[in-house]
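Page 42, continued from yesterday. The earlier attempt failed because a stray header line got pasted into the input along with the sequence. Redoing it now with the clean sequence only.
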Amino acid sequence: KQWYQRRVAITAGEYKTAYYSFYLPVVLALHLCGRDSAAELARAKDILLKIGHYFQVQDDYLDCYGDPEVIGKVGTDIQEKKCSWMFIKATSLASEAQRKILFSMYGKEDIESVVTVKELYNRLNLREHYLEYSVKTYENICEDIENDKSGLPSEIFQNFLDMIHKRSK
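This time it went through. Structure tokens are written below.
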């Protein structure tokens, strides 16, 4: 069950943002530069999809906990019943009773339901889980970039990663 929930969250992140925001622009540039061997493209895909997933998880976190003045919008993932990292993580950590509350309140427009979901997120320590995820993911991607043997310039990946790491909007 947890494997399935994790796979759903990863797939949502890959296809929601990673391809069109990270992978496709770089692959186009690689093709234009003639750096499009199967090994180079496969390595670029591997690293860029990880960066894209990291970006999407950050976006899901900021939707819930970001300052609307900074991010430029009021988050609505809870009201819109989005399959966010926050929701997936909460379902994996929650007790049966907490899951019932989450499922009964998630996707409702009223402020009381949104507050209840956010309070549940707080009881499940999702901020701390996100921070742990963020540190580990950043370190893992940096290691992947450092160990890349494809011959692609590491700056391609490191610049993207540095742009999004610890972002607040």
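Notes: The longest helix spans residues 2-33.
Reminder to self: strip header lines before submitting.
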